[in-house]
């Protein structure tokens, strides 16, 4: 008999990531942003452009991953 445990492992991993993100968000609200506060207007513009490029690359990765997962269906045996 085959067991499919990938969903349980992923559920734990996603739960850890989500809870860690919430904890980080709550704990860093009062820390401030000393690096961001020290940037010049020109540096802030460079940072914004870089963030836009990186965001687009990330979204491309999400889209490509979605397409590949829908095509290959690696977890279909877990249903």
Explain what the structure shows.
With 79 residues, the protein is mostly helical. The protein is 75% helix and 0% strand. It has helices spanning 6-28, 34-37, 41-72. The model has no long low-confidence stretch (mean pLDDT 89).
Blueprint (SSEs and pairs):
Elements: H1 6-28, H2 34-37, H3 41-72
Radius of gyration: 19 Å
List the domain count as a whole number: 1
**Mass-distribution shape:** flat
**Biggest pleated sheet:** none
Average pLDDT, to the nearest integer? 89
Order of SSEs: HHH
Specify the structural class: mainly alpha
What's the total number of strands? 0
Q: Beta-sheet strand percentage?
A: under 5%
**Which regions are unreliable across 5 or more consecutive residues at pLDDT < 50?**
none
Structural key phrases:
mainly alpha; 75% helix; 79 residues; flat
Brief description of this entry?
The protein is mostly helical. It is 75% helix and 0% strand.
């Amino acid at each position: 008999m085959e067991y499919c445990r990938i969903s349980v492992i992923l559920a734990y991993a996603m739960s850890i990531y989500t809870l860690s993100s919430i904890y980080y968000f709550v704990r860093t609200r009062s820390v401030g942003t000393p690096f961001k506060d020290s940037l010049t207007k020109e540096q802030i513009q460079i940072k914004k452009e870089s963030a836009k490029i990186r965001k687009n690359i990330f979204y491309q990765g999400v889209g490509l991953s979605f397409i590949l997962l829908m095509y290959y269906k690696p977890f279909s045996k877990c249903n």
